[in-house]
Design brief:
By secondary structure, the protein is α+β, with helices and mostly antiparallel strands. Helices cover 27% and strands 34% of the residues.
């Protein structure tokens, strides 16, 4: 009975040892498979900047001893602006016309998950550029005999979207901003054009709100310069400058086709030489 028990115990022990050995092999393989190096992905509008990070993952003892990584990109879409190394490494954003290189070494070994460097790109055109990661060299920190680390490489990308145009914002005249008042006009018809261009009457040309602007002004034909707002005095009285420009801007903002025709007539008459205007009258 004791002999049978002993044999059974030995058999169980042998199986346990075999299982332990197999388990150790599996664990070692799993650990080796976990090591990887990756470069991230990002996005930006055309003209904007996007940054990605190169990272070593799952590095076990004795740790990462030396590394050299090349990241290739599409120069038709991106420009490499800067590269910041980490873990005491070196980064060259202009290693080649379309390649950024990150390299470094550590005598003490770097274990676990660690960033090896970050790269900033500018988007020059719309589209998606792959960031192809090539592991040129990756070894552990075994003193005197560094060993190659079996690691997978994971690529990234940068998506460059078209810039969104910003629509222009119209700035209406504020109510009561005093751009015009009745003293700026020499006849009632011209003031009426301004009122009808913006019935909200921001200039208070119709204080009694009866639809008639500047009722105290005389009708057209009895005032000089055919009713245009006063521009200046002496040699500065030029109907194409100063308040004339603001007057036309306000009038054109909302006037109907008929009003536009009237303004065209007024403009023609206002820019006609003084002698010609007198002659035609």
């Amino acid at each position: 009975m004791n002999e049978r028990t002993t044999l059974a115990t030995r058999a169980i022990a042998a199986v346990a040892v075999a299982l332990a050995v197999c388990a150790g092999i599996l664990v070692t393989n799993v650990s080796a498979q976990q090591a990887s190096v990756s470069v991230g992905s990002s996005s930006a509008a055309v003209g904007g900047e996007a940054s990605v990070t190169a990272t070593a993952l799952g590095i076990t003892a004795p740790g990462l001893g030396a590394w050299t990584l090349d990241i290739t990109y599409d120069t038709a879409l991106l420009t490499a602006l800067a590269c910041i190394p980490e873990q005491g490494g070196v980064c060259n954003p202009m290693f080649d016309s379309n390649v950024v290189r990150i390299t470094g070494a550590s005598a003490s070994g770097i274990e676990g998950d660690n960033s090896l460097g970050s790269i900033t790109f500018r988007c020059d055109a719309a589209g998606t550029s792959a960031l192809d990661l090539a592991i040129v060299l990756i070894v552990d920190a075994t003193i005197g005999d560094p060993q190659f680390i079996t690691a997978t490489a994971s690529d990234g990308s940068i998506e460059c979207g078209a810039a969104t145009p910003v629509p222009p914002t119209a700035t209406p005249l504020a109510s009561g901003d005093g751009t015009f008042d009745c003293s700026d006009f020499t006849n009632q018809e011209t003031a009426q054009v301004i009122l009808e261009a913006d019935p909200t009457d921001p200039n208070n040309l119709d204080p009694d709100v009866d639809g008639v602007a500047c009722e105290e002004l005389p009708p057209r034909g009895t005032a000089p310069v055919d009713g245009f707002p006063t521009v200046g005095t002496g040699g500065d009285a030029d109907p194409s400058t100063g308040r004339m420009v603001r007057w036309l801007t306000a009038a054109l903002a909302g006037v109907s086709l008929a009003g536009l025709a009237s303004i065209a007539v007024l403009w023609t008459r206002a820019t006609r030489p003084v002698g010609e205007r007198i002659f035609r009258r």
